[in-house]
Amino acid sequence: DPVPPLQVIRPEPCGVCGSRIRFGKTAIKCCQCQLLLHTKCREQCPSLCTPRPHHHAWPREGVLADFAPPAPPLVPTLVVQCVTEVETRGLTETGLYRVPGAEQLVREWKRKLLRAGGALPALSSVTDIHVVCGVLKDFLRGLKEPLGEGAASPLTLLPGAATDIPDDAASDTALRHVVSKLPPANRDTLAFLMLHLLRVSQSPDCKMDVLNLSRVFGPTLVGHSSANPTPLAIMEDTPRQCKVVARLLSLPPSFWRGFVETEQENLVPV
């Protein structure tokens, strides 16, 4: 049930061939199921359609809120599914998140999950759990702004609260305040991730304590001190980024649970 051809403003994948329909190109959208496709793919489109669920393919990159569900806790399904898979069969693996997964498989699965949107294929078919870890890290690295950043919490505040206050109690208070001021999707996802990393750190088989996990996730979760850092600035930022994540992991689990325990059933992937 197509409407007249329209011009694409935001690049989206074609519902038939999966290739991206680029900005300014002509496309066709179905009135009933909202399926978007290239005009050339119209002949391959099934004649019968059904109204589509609310999920849609995610952008290739974006801020975290672009991937979050409509109801709290605002943790993207991709993050929940990766974490669930890692906790189901990965907590006996040495070097979890430190050992790299095969790059090609990580790229393939990340692309597959982003294209799927909210209805993700099962990760149980990924033999190597390090690939699942790689997908999660690559997703977080690919965000337009780091998880610990956001409009309501300037980049400098989180590192400052973690590293510039010598008194631990005062630093914890400042850190809790800054986390609570993060955009809701960033805050909820950070809380969900911190609880997961704490469980990883407590697994003797993983041999990934808080320090190891901070080294892995510091540069991924915490931004740089300037918008376009020089190689020297990147090198100088790394210890600070790691310290921020170590301080976040030192906060009690009850603090993090306060953000994600509401409507916990929403986090269970279908």
UniProtKB/TrEMBL annotation:
Domain of life the protein comes from: Eukaryota
The gene coding this protein: Racgap1_0
Q: For this chain's UniProt record, which GO biological process terms are given?
A: mitotic cytokinesis; mitotic spindle midzone assembly; Rho protein signal transduction
Any one annotated GO CC term: midbody
Q: Boundaries of each Phorbol-ester/DAG-type domain copy? A: 1-49
Which SMART domains does the record cross-reference, listed alphabetically? RhoGAP
Q: Which GO terms describe its molecular function?
A: GTPase activator activity; metal ion binding
Please give the name of this protein: RGAP1 protein
Keyword Kinase tagged: no
Keyword terms: Metal-binding, Zinc
Q: Which residues form the Rho-GAP domain?
A: 62-256
